[in-house]
Design goal:
By secondary structure, the chain is an alpha/beta fold. It folds into two domains: 9-53, no CATH class; 60-311, 2-enoyl-CoA Hydratase, Chain A, domain 1. It is 51% helix and 15% strand. The chain contains 15 helices and eight strands. Strands 1, 2, 3, 4, 5, 6, 7 and 8 form an eight-stranded mixed sheet that branches. The longest helix has 20 residues, at 9-28.
Length: 328
């Protein structure tokens, strides 16, 4: 049985009642179809009410759901002939970043993705989706190859953030992330970045310099995790819910702020409820933008991507604020 969050329990209880009523009807030979239909209608309304009005913290919970699809779930549904390429040719192969070449709707592409595990053992193997410098080095190696052969680059973001242990710092984590930002801003091929779960801090931004940034509707993309933000601002990680609301990092917030270009619809309750449907939606949206981007000249692709990166965080002060500053 899938993990249930607190806000989903009223739905589960109602569905349990429906199941019990159907079982009782079958065992006793009593027609309870009208009662079942009434409860089903109530359940449908409750789902629409709850999932249609999720708070930021609830979206964080869905984005972190242990059964939420990762890149390896999507890969066979999105791509033909995906060939994974490993290693950074310098230190090691980082398993929290997967990359390779594939066919997407008949087009040869390079694919880079951050990958979390589905259970404790796999999460330990993949460092909970937190890449070390060698992961980012591998990403740059594969993206440089894509630039050389003129292949579009598709990145998939799903990380709490870059690894911050001693080994990562000793091997130059900051420089590795900065190099990703530098080289991605200068490529002449189309780049589409998609946040499929968590988009945490610079670890996510390292793969987020795209001509187009897409987000699954229950994903988030943030400068800091809500728990870390709460710890800094209030010295209390229990205030993560308040931090999530303040950060404005949901897909809907970022679409409004211009950081994201389009939201990819998820099944009711999250992508884990219907992998095939989510993959189909994702495939259609990526294909739409890839067709458009391939019509742009290499110089225009590079300039637009650079300007999009530079525009993140830009704001305009109102005349009233400027006047108040002058009076001060």
């Amino acid at each position: 049985m899938a993990q249930l969050f607190e806000f989903e329990k009223p739905i589960a209880e109602l569905e349990q009642k429906i199941s019990e009523l159907q079982k009782f009807s079958a065992e006793k030979g009593i027609d309870l179809s009208q009662e079942v239909a009434t409860l089903e209608k109530k359940a449908a309304f409750l789902k629409k009410e709850i999932y249609g009005n999720l708070e930021p913290w609830q979206k964080v919970q869905i984005a972190r759901h242990p059964e939420r699809p990762n890149f390896y779930d999507y890969a066979p549904l999105l791509f033909e002939d995906f060939i994974e390429l490993k290693g950074d040719r310098l230190f090691a192969d980082d398993r929290s970043i997967a990359g390779g070449i594939a066919l997407f709707h008949g087009i040869a592409v390079t694919v880079i993705a951050q990958v979390k595990g589905k259970d404790t053992k796999e999460n330990i193997k993949r460092n909970f989706g937190m890449p070390h410098p060698e992961g980012y080095h591998k990403a740059v190696r594969l993206m440089d190859q894509a630039e050389k052969f003129g292949r579009p680059i598709l990145t998939f973001i799903d990380t709490p953030g870059a690894a911050c242990d001693l080994g990562a710092e000793e091997r130059g984590q900051g420089e590795a992330i900065a190099r990703c930002l530098l080289v991605m801003s200068g490529y002449h091929v189309p780049v589409i970045s998609t946040v499929i779960g968590e988009g945490g801090s610079g670890g996510a931004l390292a793969l987020g310099v795209g001509n187009v940034v897409l987000m699954l509707e229950n994903s988030f993309y943030s400068v800091i995790a809500p728990e870390s933000c709460a710890s800094i601002l209030w010295k209390d990680t229990a205030k993560a819910k308040e931090a999530a609301a303040a950060l404005k990092f949901t897909a809907q917030d970022l679409l409004r702020l211009g950081v994201a270009d389009e939201l990819v619809r998820e099944p009711q309750g999250g992508a884990h409820n219907n992998l095939n449907q989510t993959a189909e939606e994702l495939s259609q949206v990526i294909s739409k933008y890839l067709v458009r981007l391939r019509l742009e000249s290499p110089e225009v692709l590079r300039e637009k991507r650079y300007q999009k990166l530079r525009a993140i965080g830009v704001f305009q002060e109102t005349a009233e604020i400027n006047l108040a500053k002058k009076l001060d």
